[in-house]
Amino acid sequence: MPYATRARRAVRETVSGLPREFWWLWTSTLVNRLGGFVATFMALYLTLDRGYSATYAGLVASLHGLGGVISSLGGGVMADRLGRRPTLLIAQASTAVSVALLGFVRDPVAIAAVAFLVGMASNASRPAVQAMMADIVRPEDRIRAFSLNYWAINLGFAVSSMAAGFIAEVSYRAGFLIEAAMTMACAILVFLRLPESKPAEAVRTAAARSDDSVSLGTVLRDGRFMSVVGLSFLVALVFQQGSVGLPVAMGEAGFTPAEYGMAIAVNGVLIVVLQIPVTRFIEHRDPRRLLVVSSLLAGYGFGLTAFAGSVGVIALTVCVWTLAEIVNAPTQTGLVVRLSPLHGRGRYQGMYTMSWSVAALVAPLLSGFVIDRFGAEWLWGLCAVVGTVAGLGYGVLMGRVPEEKAAAVVEPEVGVRAQPEVGTG
Questions:
Q1: How far apart, in whole angstroms, are the C-alpha atoms of residue 305 and residue 341?
Q2: How many distinct structural domains can be found in the chain?
Q3: Residue 143, CA distances (Å) to 14, 42, 133, 317 in order
Q4: Fewer Cβ atoms within 10 Å of its own Cβ: the N or the C terminal residue of the chain?
Q5: Residue 383 belongs to a domain
Q6: Residue range 4-20: average pLDDT?
Q7: Where is the signal peptide, in residue numbers (predicted)?
Q8: What is the CATH number of the domain that holds 146?
C-alpha cells in the first residue's frame, strides 16, 4: 500500500468516531493557543519596551503563575457547581478583558496586579475543558481525544510563538489586543456551539444536596488520587526544565539564545509531527507501563544533557524527553479521569491542573538554586533521580488502580449524547 494511502487512512482512523461537540471544543483550544502571544513576549515587553528590570519581570511572571495556581482549584469547583459551559464563558471572557487591559496599564503595581488576574482567568478554563472532554467522549476514545487536544495546544503554541516576534516588532499593544480578540472569539464559539455537558444525574444530585457530594476535602482525602497529583508534580518539575533550567545552563555554557531556540524548537516540531502516530501506537496499551516508561525517558532525557557539548547533542536529548511528553500527557490525563467520580470531575481536574501550576512556580527557583550552588550537571542528575522516583511511583500506584469498565449510561444534557461512564473513583 502506498505511503500516502496509509497516511490518509491513519489520519482518518485517528479523527473518526469522536462527537461533534469534541471538535468544537478542540477548535476553541486551537484558536485560544494560536492567539497566545502575551506569555511569549511578556518578559521582552517589560524589560525592553517598558524599561523595567529583569527582577521585576520575574516578579510579574511569578504573580501570573500564582494566579494560575489559585484558579486551578477555583475553576474546578466552578466546573462542578456552575457547569462546564458557564465556567468556560466566564474564564475566557475574563481573560480577554484582562489581557486587553494589560496592554494599557503603565504603573508597575497595576501591571503586576493585572498580570495576576490574567493568570487566574486564563488557567480557570483548563479544568472545565478537561472535564467537558471526559463528559462527551467515550472512555475507549479518551486517550485519543486528549492526544488530539494536546496536539492542538502545541500546534497553536508553535504558530503563536513565531508570530509573536513579528507582532512585537510592530507593536506590543497590538499583541495584547489580538490575543484578547481571539480569546473572546473562543468564548463566542463556546456560547454558540457547545452545550452544557455536565451529566444531568450529577446536576440533580447537586441540587438535592446543599453540601456537594464531592468537595475539595473529598479530593484531598482520596489518597490514591493525591498520589497521582504528587507524581504529576514530579514529572512536571522535570518537564519544566526545558524552559527554565535548559536556557540558563546553555547560557552559562556559552551557547547563544539563537542556539537555545534551535534546540528547543525540536520539542514543538516533534509534538506536531509525532503526536498523532504515537497516539495510534499507545492508545490501547497498558497505561501503567506507559507512565513508567515516560517518566524514565523524561528523567534520563534531561539527565543526558550533562554530557551534551554541542547544540546537535542537546537537540537529541530534547528528542528523548519530548517523546516522553507525547506519551505522558494523554495517558496521565486519562488516568485522572479514571480516578474521578462523575459528579466531581471539575474538582479532580482542578487539583491535577494545580500540580502543573505549582511545578511552574517551583521549577525556576529550584533550577536557579541548583545551578548557582552546585552546577548544571547536578540539575540534570537530579532530573534523572526525580524521573526514576516518579517511574517507580507509577509502577506501585497503577497496581492498585482497577481496570476501566463501563457502568450505567448517564442521562446527558441537551445536545450531548449518552456515554457509558467509568465506575471508579
A1: 40
A2: 1
A3: 11, 33, 11, 26
A4: N
A5: yes
A6: 73
A7: none
A8: 1.20.1250.20
Q: Could you give the CA distance from residue 339 to residue 359 in angstroms, rounded to a whole number?
A: 22
Range of 317's domain?
20-209+216-401+412-422
pLDDT digits (tens, 9 = 90+) for 234-259: 999 999 888 778 888 888 888 887 78
Residue 149 in grid coordinates: 487536544
pLDDT tens digits, 283-342: 778 888 899 999 999 999 999 999 988 989 999 999 999 999 999 988 888 888 888 888
pLDDT at site 213? 67
C-alpha span between 169 and 40 (Å, rounded): 13
Grid cell listed for 337: 479521569
Amino acid at 79: A
Length of the chain in residues, anyone? 425
Which amino acid appears at position 230 of this protein?
G
Q: In whole angstroms, what is the distance from residue 407 CA to residue 403 CA? A: 12
**Is pTM beyond 0.70 here?**
yes
Residue 6 lies in a domain: no
The answer to whether residue 4 sits within a structural domain is no
Q: In angstroms, rounded to a whole number, what is the distance separating the alpha carbons of residues 48 and 45?
A: 6
Rounded Cα–Cα distance for residues 180 and 167 (Å)? 14
